[in-house]
Amino acid sequence: MHVDGFRFDLASILTRSTSSWDAVNVYGNLTDGDVITTGTPLTSPPLVDMISNDPILCGVKLIAEAWVCGGLYQVGMFPHWGIWSEWNGKKGGRKPWNSINFVCAHDGFTLADLVTYNNKHNLANGEDNKDGENHNNSWNCGEEGEFASIFVKKLRKRQMRNFFLCLMVSQGVPMIYMGDEYGHTKGGNNNTYCHDNYINYFRWDKKDESLSDFLRLCCLMTKFRHQCESLGLDGFLTADRLQWHGHAPRIPDWFETSRFVAFTLVDKVKGELYVAFNASHLPVTITLPDRPAYRWQPLVDTGKPAPFDFLTDDVPEREIAAKQHSHFLDADQYPMLSYSSIILLLSPADDSLFHSTSRAR
């Protein structure tokens, strides 16, 4: 049936004991104590054990949403037998592929609603807006709802680009909520389980409308991730390939008040990447790591409108767009707008398409 694997909703329920639990019957000995109360989390739950060691199932993707409505939270502690992945949360001592990374999921706001609403709008569910999560970690960019100023709408699109870029450069398995690639909205409803209508349907008619520019970025960023050897590793990166930066090279600011982070990443295919996030409401000019005989070239800048947010070879006036920052890049600097993120690639200085005349001399 071409099924790659399974994601188990509220998977921690699979670890709880039943009323008929009998450790001796299952394992031949008392592995979890003499008395097991119904619903007690088991360290070696038999069902998860059988799935993990089944000759067919152990070879497919097994993903756990490792919590339940009753408060049992097992992210990072779910019995995994070395093969299960989990929705991202608190985690340690395992591999990048064990983490399913996501910004949005079916529980909560869509990506477009995440940047459009501060509060849930669930009246259509018939429960007086009492259902659904109240803590959404969302920001409407200054105005609540669809009807907003041009400035706010531009900022929202930039924030969507920032979120998607962050997801695509993260170690682990990226999970994209269906419809986010074209900006699907549920009108601020964060609990749409009860709707069998356009709120949950994939809107093919919307995919080709104004937000198709965002779809272009999503496609290009996904392709870029596949091309980068360093963004899909089996193990976590070490200092020989990864360096952290702040506004200046090798001086990261880890204080809670910091709104900027950057890193360089050595990639066996792309050479070296420079990735930076400016989450401040103020623009900033950053200093790039010096690489003698090489020069940083812009690839992605979420602060720019499409198609200049991702500079592919077929972008009209690509050279002109890149040259706008050539005087900064000549000095190993780059200007970033507020709420923006970038990806730069390192290339030999002599081969640079946008190398300024003055520096070439």
From TrEMBL:
Q: Name one Pfam family in it.
A: ISOA1-3_C
UniProt cross-references to PANTHER family, sorted A to Z: GLYCOGEN DEBRANCHING ENZYME
Task: Report the protein name in the record.
Answer: Isoamylase 1, chloroplastic
Please list the residue ranges annotated as the Isoamylase 1-3-like C-terminal domain: 243-344
Please name the InterPro entries in this protein's record. Answer: GH, Glyco_hydro_b, ISOA1-3-like_C
